[in-house]
């Protein structure tokens, strides 16, 4: 006989954990700057030579989900397989859009973006 206005206790608890983590990182401004830095690094690599092509127009790019393609669908698949083998998992793009997608949400470390950029440079060197 629960009342309709029972608060979603687990969701509130999770929000508390997230907010504590956010404060421990230095607050919203600090996390926002880190997210901008991560996205900027990744987009700089995508834009560097034209081997990688971003899906979104430059003024509409996401800082959380960076989407891109390679010159061919075959290379998209090869990139995904080699990236997974190198420990960079979860780069497959959306099933209706294709390509690749790097999800770099708040807790994703900058070192992970650095590793992806390094992998992208090596992949381009071998396949361009």
Structural class: mainly alpha
Order of helices and strands: HHEEHEH
- Gyration radius, in Å: 18 Å
Treating each run of at least 4 consecutive H or I residues as one helix, how many helices? 4
Percent of residues in helices comes to: 40-55%
> Main β-sheet, in a few words?
3 strands, antiparallel
Sheet with the most strands: spatial strand order: 1-2-3
Strand content: 5-15%
Distance between the termini: 65 Å
Count all strands and give the number.
Answer: 3
**Average pLDDT level:** 94
Query: What low-confidence regions span 5 or more consecutive residues with pLDDT below 50?
Result: none
Large-scale geometry: elongated
Give an overview in words.
By secondary structure, the chain is mainly alpha-helical. The protein has helices spanning 9-25, 28-49, 73-85, 110-127, and strands at residues 53-54, 65-69, 100-103. It has a 3-stranded antiparallel sheet with strand order 1-2-3. Helix 2 runs parallel beside helix 4 (110-127). The model has no long low-confidence stretch (mean pLDDT 94).
């Amino acid at each position: 006989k629960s009342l309709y206005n029972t608060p979603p206790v687990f969701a509130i608890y999770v929000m508390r954990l997230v907010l504590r983590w956010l404060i421990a990182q230095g607050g919203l401004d600090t996390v926002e700057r880190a997210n901008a830095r991560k996205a900027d690094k990744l987009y700089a690599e995508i834009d560097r030579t034209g081997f990688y092509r971003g899906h979104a127009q430059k003024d509409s790019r996401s800082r959380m989900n960076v989407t891109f393609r390679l010159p061919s669908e075959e290379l998209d698949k090869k990139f995904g397989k080699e990236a997974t083998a190198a420990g960079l998992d979860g780069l497959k793009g959306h099933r209706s859009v294709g390509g690749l997608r790097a999800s770099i949400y708040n807790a994703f470390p900058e070192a992970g973006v650095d590793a992806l950029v390094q992998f992208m440079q090596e992949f381009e060197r071998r396949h361009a």
